[in-house]
Design brief:
Layout: H1 3-16, H2 18-55, E1 58-62, H3 65-79, H4 99-111, E2 115-121, H5 123-134, E3 151-156, H6 162-169, E4 175-180, H7 181-224, H8 226-234, H9 239-274, H10 279-282, H11 291-320
Antiparallel strand pairs: 1-3, 1-4, 2-3
Helix pairs in contact: 1-9, 2-7, 2-9, 2-11, 7-11, 9-11
Length: 323
């Protein structure tokens, strides 16, 4: 088989169906860009989960004097049958936490095998941290140290087992609430996963559109060159020899689309993450992926960009290239 003949036939086919070829390139490019972006998103979410779950603590907030007063008022309203009683704090009805209760809680926490470490935060320390984070707000000026709650920050060996700590301490005397930071993090990751699923769904739709365009392009190209292929068949050319130019046309269009997708992924990393928008500098709480992760996805994009159109063309030719 002469390479010059194959290349000339590819050029002829691409020029004859220029508009459809352009549509194939755009469809393949967008679908593969979404494919690469979905892979990066999944890797980013997994990386963030590992980072934030490791830092997520179970916080056990202890009752202070103000909590005890509010609990007593709520209990009184409940006894009177007031509908407002359901909104009151009733977990601190027996008063503020005592030193003995604090020692008992800390002792039980340290005995639990799933607990990695326990850190105590006093009301003064909680007030200091609150002022560091929210000192510029109007509410911060009205908060006093005695209104802040003492707490135990519990770090678990396995964050997935936070419910064990919650069930063991919630509702006990001296404990106001048991808060697991992982629950708030899960909400964020749930949203990110939904976005990733949406991107995958759009990618599948774009891939289907691209495949239909490839099949239609091959069909039109085969029909427009039916006389040439008929002559080649009469002179003894094999089916593979006749099909190669059509398959290569689809492969070239797919490769151009894949390169377009790679360009979008690289541009997104450069202009959105590192420079331009600069999310890496603006959102320092997120450890964004580097160039290594992006470059590692490009071979997959290029491979699919070549394989998918070639297979679609090969299957289409079995039906439309019968002479």
């Amino acid at each position: 088989m002469r390479a010059q003949f194959v290349m000339s036939e590819i050029g002829v086919g691409l020029r004859r169906n220029l508009t459809m070829t352009f549509a194939v390139i755009i469809s393949v490019g967008l679908s593969l860009a979404l494919f690469g972006g979905s892979m990066l998103m999944s890797e980013q979410v997994s990386k963030m989960k590992g980072y934030w779950y490791d830092k997520a603590n179970v916080s056990i907030y202890l009752c202070n004097k103000q909590d005890a007063v509010e609990a007593s008022e709520a209990a009184a309203k409940k006894a009177d049958g007031s509908p407002a009683a359901s909104t009151g704090v009733t977990t601190c009805a027996k008063g503020a936490v005592t030193d003995e209760q604090k020692k008992q809680i800390e002792s039980e926490l340290k005995k639990m095998s799933l607990v990695k470490s326990v850190a105590y935060e006093s009301a003064d320390e909680a007030y200091k941290h609150y002022q560091e984070r929210f000192g510029n707000t109007a509410l911060a000026s009205s908060i006093t140290p005695d209104q802040m709650q003492e707490s135990f920050r519990v770090k678990l060996k396995d964050p997935e087992k936070y419910k064990v700590v919650t069930s063991a301490f919630v509702g006990r005397d001296g404990i106001h609430t048991v808060d697991d930071q992982r629950q708030a993090i899960d909400d964020l990751f749930r949203i990110l996963n939904y976005l990733n699923i949406a991107a995958l769904a759009i990618m599948l739709i774009m891939l289907i559109v691209a495949l239909l365009l490839i099949v239609n392009t091959v069909r039109v190209s085969a029909f427009s060159r039916r006389r040439e292929t008929g002559i080649m068949r009469l002179v003894g050319a094999s089916s593979f020899y006749i099909q190669v130019p059509f398959i290569m046309e689809a492969a070239v269009a797919g490769l151009i689309g894949a390169l377009f997708a790679c360009g979008m992924l690289v541009s997104g990393q450069y202009f959105v993450i590192d420079h331009g928008v600069g999310l890496r500098d603006k959102i320092q709480l997120i450890d964004f992926m580097g160039w290594g992760s992006v470059l590692a996805k490009l071979p997959y994009v290029l491979f699919i960009g070549l394989l998918m159109p070639s297979m679609a063309a090969f299957i289409a030719l079995r039906k439309y290239l019968k002479v």
